[in-house]
Amino acid sequence: MSQEFSGKIALDVRDSVPDWGPYELKRAPEGAPNVLVVLFDDTGMAAWSPYGGRINMPTLDKLAERGLTYTQWHTTALCSPTRSCLLTGRDHTTNRIASIMETTNGFPGNSGRIPDECASIGHILQDNGYSTYWIGKDHDVPEEDIAAGGSRSRWPLQMGFDRFYGFLGGETNNWYPDLVEDNHFIEQPYTPDDGYHLSKDLADQAIKMLRDQQASNPSKPWYMWFCPGANHAPHHSPKEYAEKYRGMFDDGYDAYRTWVLERMIEKGILPEGTELTPFNPILEEQQNPIDHVKPWEELNDDEKRLFSRMAEVFAGFSEYTDAQVGRVIDYLEETGQLENTIVFYCADNGASGEGTESGSVNENKYFNNYPDDLAENLSMIDELGSPDTYNHYPTGWAAAFSTPYQMFKRYAQYAGGTCDPLVISWPKGIQATGELRHQYHHVTDIVPTVLDIIGLEMPEVYRGVEQVPLPGVSMRYTFDADPDAPTKKKRQYYTIGGTRGIWQDGWKAAATHAPMNGKGNFDKDAWELYHVDVDRSESKDLADQYPEKVEELVAAWFEEAHKNHGLPMDDRSVMEMLTTPRPQAEPPRDRYIYYPDTSPVPEGVAVNVRGRSFKIVADVTIEEGAEGVLFAHGSRFGGHALFIKDDRLHYVYNFLGIPPEQTFVSPKLTPGKHVLGMEFTREEAGPNKESVGTTKLYVDDQLVDEGPMRAQVGKFTLCGDGLCVGYDSADSVSRSYTAPFRFTGGKILGVAVDVGKEQYLDLEMEAAAALARE
């Protein structure tokens, strides 16, 4: 109890006096506003219309006209870290999230589990009379916890949110998403053939939650975090939205940078005289080759046509999602809630360079260190944005949409990675409308701002645990400040993937190390110096002129890094980090047995067949005409499946979606009891480290087909499309069938997947006996 009972207790209740005070829940302060945080992904400042960009964002334009547009708001340069800052208000390494959740490394600043010392904004508001809702992307749940039987300790509901609807990983297929509702996995409510798109579904769910709130507790304020899959890859756009931009990017990304910089200066986003930084600014010895930008003038006509279309699809994806956010805003206006709702509309890092210099029709190639092929990409140009592609534009557009700064997402030392859009609208609380604010701020300043507006403080002790103080400052003073008034922020440090930067009192030091370049030798990094107050684009390196200032800032960086668990530095490649062994709730074993009618098993906890030999054995009884999936894992963009079709056993390995599918087929099967399976023997590494070997297909103890096969060493997907028995969830692994293609006409006793050294025929007999005993 927070207070003593002050009533009267007698023998008889009729002689007693009640006191409800100690037992009542806290109410929010009188007049406390609703809070809506809209957080897009992977969007540089030069993309959107309020900032002068070519992508029309009508909802964001409307909010900017009613509120304030910030020109120096910064993020961590990467998804999970930024989201952790928005969740707790602490720096990302204090939150133990120095990288994305799929690349944590077991050190204090990057162990991937937000500590109890960093209470969430959800918990604080929930305890103070708010309803709390989380819609869309999470990406702050440890990978091993994303499982039906995994720990829920860092899922949204356990982090202080009443409701959750969205996806837990770093990205998802917008046509076939990996969905969670509250504390359990669900299938999507309908398919793309019926008009499904994740952005629309998220808006539907947001409106429903708010409508339910109004029906039962209309006086209670709410906090909603709305995190669409946009603008992260895959760039999935309804065709009519992509068509709006037909021809609008034909001038190319070089020309776009020049054009948009003029517009940004004209709108006052950037000061007169701001200079454009060059493509590929990092010295060759520190560059990461996958981030190279090929100048537009060096492209052939096919590349120009392809790259322009990729930008059109991205733009359509962004505007379509903005329209869905607009439906939520319209609902608030129609119900009289918008006046006292403070809206933060922002993005989590700069534009993404994960499409490499050639763009991609399957972004999973990036996570497998596998090069894209222009001919393959061109063959899919008319399908870009559709369910048939997992597309991403090339690095040139990442640099263009991050104009005028150097580089893009993952480059935490440069504003190209960290300077992002932020519009704040609050009709009741902000008198200024349609104005700019140039104060330097960071994502860690949002939680202090929300608490300040509501009239709350982060407690020094929460649930018995001493709390890390909030490092940020409230931005509320900017609401009625002059556009160029001094910032109240003094220092901000940055680090991602081997990059380092620090801003202090208008100056910035930046180490030239590229992220994930694998070169180490951090003690030999050169440091650049920029006077950001007068050189907003960070175009003039003053390190030689002010060596003492460089020394001062580098010392400040190390001070912050030691205080916030920023060491050690980790610049290994994406695939190296993705495949780093991490603790699992279940001990590793050689054999995994799965049964039908269970939910998809996420890749992070499913049997790992990457980079090794493996066998799959299904113990089945089949009738005449039996068909369907026995085993499936992944999607058309990477995965494998064992299934029966046309009375024959098929095994398909879909290597990164590259046609043709690798297919092995048996003669016709006879009804009865069978052990059906395959064996892949890895013999060597291919030119891109992929597994190369031989696959054999078996019916009982008979070899019925064999041939060469290559297999992925990286993930099938960053998240989603888990392992299934008896059906294929979400997107189909093979074009030979349409998901779910449930198994009918017999019974699956179980499926064993073996990654040990046992021979297939020994496994066939042993697994059949084991499955029969279950």
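Next protein, fold it too.
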Amino acid sequence: MKFLFTFLIFFIFLGANVGAQEMPENIIPKRIYTTKRLIKVPVIDGAILDDAWNAVEWSSDFTEKDPDEGTPPAYQTKFKVMYDAKYLYIAIRAFDAEPELIQQRLSRRDGFQGDRVNVIIDSYHDQRTAFVFTTTAAGVKGEELASQNGSNWDDSYNPIWYTNAKVDDKGWTAEMKIPFSQLRFGKAEEQIWGFNVNRTIFRFQERSLWQRIPNTQTGFISEAGELHGLKNLVPQKQLEIQPFTVLQQDIYPKEIGNPFKTGSDFSLNAGLDAKIGITNDLTLDLTINPDFGQVEADPGAIALDGFQIFFREQRPFFVENFNIFDFEFANGRDNLFYSRRIGRNPHRYATLNPGEFADVPQNSTILGAAKFSGKTRNGWSIGVLESVTANEYATIRQTDGTEREEIVEPMTNYFVARAQKDFNDRNSFIGGIFTATNRNLNGNFNEMRTAGYTAGADFQHNWKDREYYIEGNTIFSHVLGSTEAITATQQTLRHNFQRTDATHVSVDENKTSLTGTGGRVEIGKNGGGNWRYNGGVIWRSPELELNDVGFLRRTDEIIQFGNLRYLWQVPTDIYRNINLSLEQSSDYDFGGNLNGMQFEAQGRISYINNWSTNSGFGLSINSYDNFFLRGGPRWRMPDTSFLYFFLNSDNSKLFSFTLGYTNRRSSENVVGRDRFVIRTNYQPTDAFSMSFNIEYANLFDRTQYVTESSGIEVNNDTRYILGRIKNQTLTTTLRLNYSFTPDISLQFYGQPFISKGQYTDLNYVLNPLGESINDRISVYNEQQISFENDVYTIDENTNGITDYSFSNPDFSFVQLQTNLVARWEYIPGSELFLVWARGSSGSAEVSDDLVDSVSDQVFRAPANDTFLVKFTYRFAR
């Protein structure tokens, strides 16, 4: 407590000395650029030398956004816009008195490195979404779809367009040619679009805007200027067809006697992706037999708490336009749509008799998927997704050569429908979502649910020039299945209805369905002046179930939260800006139990030299966990304090880094965790960059869950067995990138991962609600516990008779993932990939140190190698 009090005094002192610098409240008039139809067509070479550009006037007078908002930038920028029947043309002149210092960093598409210009086009003019086209001084292109009024930027948007850039003695120039088929707009004699241009001078970390947007103003897209003069445009329906072919060779350690593990496999695959413009606003995306061979592997992770780990979606079909389907209803990762459920690994393993071998598919085959999405001019956002995965069979071969098949995953249909409607001059919206998962079980898979349905509604309302807001959502779920499947659902860790001391939940073995609810309501101030605050409540009922096509980590929670922030936004000689905040939350279950309170103070300072620090501290008190004993009674957690500090250097330099440290300590020294982070990035040339990241965590916990033993004679009771764990985790990630041109690149990714856990002081639960740790557990003494053949044997009452036993919980998991990808975008939208991927995983000796274990996995352990060639061609109209 003394430590926390000292830091609190520090933050109060800092606030008193820096002073309250209120930003002036100015009404910024909308700027208007009036374009004209071109007379000649310019050549898009980046030079802006064609006479064609003389058809329109320059516009300039950019205003700095960061670091010193409202002031003239270091160097001005100007632009021109013109159009014809099919394209929008944009010319950029970025002045710079030191052109030799312009950062021309090459990268892959969407690299967003070096000096750059972003053109922001709100062609819907809904003041919430925009298409963003980026050109760097090196001629690298990038695109994003901005939504939620600029709070979400999605770089999965991948249109066909044309750009180039050149550096000269005045600075640098860029030209863009954007097909109207890649934009969305309605019918009107004259189009009026939201429009803005953002320039970044990388070495200064300076941003400037054509349409000034004060830092106190909430929103970004809504505050853009306007583009006028687009007359008699005919909406262009998008039509793109992209077939692909994949050749794949897998090489792996041969398994003696296993006919399915011969050491080498070859496959030839083909498929098709297509985009069809139903209207100019709405697009139908189709995929047949999609291939995700070049997708980067998931990072290594170990879940000591038993809950499911969230991994981000990386498959292009599902990533693109995900913002339309997104329905994150609570905090964390909880979402009604988690696309990684589609094409997941089979639920079952093959059942083998002695002498049999099985070839089990790693993932469910996606037979086909269709996605209908877009946004209409009158404010409707619409998304519909339909996907079917196949019956999956394991092929089982006996030693005499005979074969049989065993189903391991049923055919499943996934359906998602999402809609939102803007109104009240785009200051409000209301929306809804519906998902359905239906499995064709055919009398098999009694352990699986036959169907799962979810629905939700969300809303947001902003007022007083979007300074204040109220938003929220509510959801419900309904799952169906056999009594066996629904009983198993009730007993999963996220539900835990079998908790022995719970009075508000219990397992009902006769149920064939579950119905639950959840939601979130929040109100606050998000703009204007220096103060920001919000508060609200989140709930997840005990029967809520989303994991058929959503993501839900735990249930039975009601969380109250409140946040208060103060911003210093006027730069001084020391800092660019400061953000300090206080957060508070409390957690209840549906039985009315208070399960904890947490307080946190945090601050971020961006310094005038482009360095920054991020630090915080907090305290968790009165903490209880209904899930800790995994079906056992409610468990009392020790009061815990935590702190963290991160230092970030200037990332505009050739070498930049982040150093971080987090610490967690509990009362009575029950739990302790130290985590160290080192992230580095080095770009010695414009074409080559590398990053090397290291994360090391060292955890000890005297009460790490191990297992339970039921029906023992001692006290005729269940024993919940815990132990003191020393868990060390080391992750290193290396990325190398070499760009020959903006369209040709070579990338390497490598990540060794190890997590090692050693248990000592094994113990059992005495009183789960005891005030002291010594009241809650009893450590086995030498007369009670013995160890032989990797099994612990317990004679709890020391009468010479074994009461129960359990396996050695020690572990040391090691994983290596690498890939080398050569990419050539030989024409816009069409690519050739050459991929080599190498991976392995296994167990190391617990007694070995981390470095030796990783070294053995990288250099000595047998690995799986995949060589892949993927060719795509994009037909576009």
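About the second fold: The longest strand covers residues 719-741.
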